[in-house]
Specification:
The protein is an all-beta fold. 0% of the residues lie in helices and 51% in strands. The protein is built from no helices and 10 strands. Strands 1, 2, 3, 4, 5, 6, 7, 8, 9 and 10 form a 10-stranded mixed beta sheet that branches. The protein is elongated, with a radius of gyration of 17 Å.
Length: 179
Amino acid sequence: PTPNMTIRHLGVTGNGNTNWSHSVTFNPGDEVDFYAEIHNTVVGTTAMAVKLKANVPSGTFVDGTSVARVSADNANTASDTVNIHINGGGKLEFIPNSTRVTWDVNGDGNKEFNNTYVTGNPMVGDLMIGDQHGCNQYIIQVGWAARVVGGQPSPSPSPSPTPVASRSSLREYPVWSAN
């Protein structure tokens, strides 16, 4: 049989909020989290070279979508969407070093990745994950963060300092569900 990929993509609004949703509203200055739950639903198969990409609008916008797409070399491509509203407009900027993975690669009950930070930005290019076996115990959870930057640039002194990215909070992933 052929692997069958599914994905659930969610976002969470505002700092400290835990209400993950397919429809989110942000304010300029918010640090926001996105989530993708990746599942190969066909037991006994292996999806080869699983990749995740999350397309978000470029530039300033008020209403847009984040479309997360999962693909594999030998399986279908699946996608899910988060509707985004930014009060007053703004743009999303990825927070460097915020991508993390939770995954029991071999399904033995011990997570090889447990909220582990990994290199990559799913908002810019494919995040290469690896080969995924088919069944619930192999579900992959990926989270990443962005900052909402206001639509109108403000004047800055010259020279301007280089900001250092930091995460003020780390939200728990939503509880995964078998699709």
